[in-house]
Design a protein that fits this description.
It is a single chain. The protein has helices at 3-17, 21-37, 52-82, 88-115, 142-169, 173-197. It is mainly alpha-helical and 199 residues long. It is flat and about 85 Å long.
């Protein structure tokens, strides 16, 4: 028997006794997927110097801010699509920048909630009843759209300021600084919108 014949018969015996390679790969992939999907989100023991009650209250406030931010993303996007008139280009361009920034901010806020040891968002704190920003986008003129966005950004700033103060009182400087950065952005947006519609 030649070496080729010996190798061929060994391959035949191996393939007859073992499932095809693709079947083995799929089975291993399924096993790995199952093990990855088994972990469940549980209560986390966080010991960073912020007491449990404060972490919970701050997380709830951040969850409400997260809701407002998402609603503002949607409303800004709606106005981006529907603006008409002489201010079209300015509003279209500014809203595109803004909804991009706001969407990125949702991730930052949600990750802070997680770092505090809570699910993002905290369910009871993040419903429409907790939002200060309205999902309704009733404005039809560019001027009215801008006025509506100014009001929503100002409401968001007020809520962020209250939460930043609470975070600082509980020595949560990370949340405080994150909210200072977010308020800086929102205040700049308000200033730019006001500058655009000033006559």
């Amino acid at each position: 028997m030649t070496s080729d014949a010996t190798a061929g018969s060994a391959r035949e015996r191996l393939s007859a006794s073992a499932p095809p390679l693709t079947d083995r790969i799929h089975e291993r992939s399924r096993e790995m997927t199952q093990s990855v999907l088994k972990p469940k989100l549980t209560e986390e023991a966080v010991a960073t110097g912020i007491d449990d009650d404060a972490r919970q209250r701050i997380s709830e406030a951040l969850s409400a801010i997260l809701t407002d931010t998402y609603v503002l993303v949607i409303k800004t996007h709606i106005y981006h699509w529907n603006v008409v008139g002489p201010l079209f280009h300015a509003v279209h361009t500014m809203t595109e920048d803004q909804y991009g920034n706001l969407f990125e901010a949702t991730d930052t806020i949600a990750e802070r909630i997680r770092a505090l040891g809570n699910r993002a968002p905290v369910a009871d704190a993040a419903g429409p009843g907790k939002a200060v920003v309205s999902a309704a986008a009733p404005a039809t003129s560019a001027h009215d759209m801008i006025a509506d966005l100014i009001a929503d950004h100002e409401a968001a700033i007020r809520k962020m300021r209250d939460t930043a103060d609470m975070a600082e009182k509980h020595d949560d400087l990370v949340t405080h600084d994150m909210l200072i950065e977010r308020m800086t952005y929102h205040e700049q947006v308000v200033w730019m919108w006001r500058a655009l519609i000033t006559e």
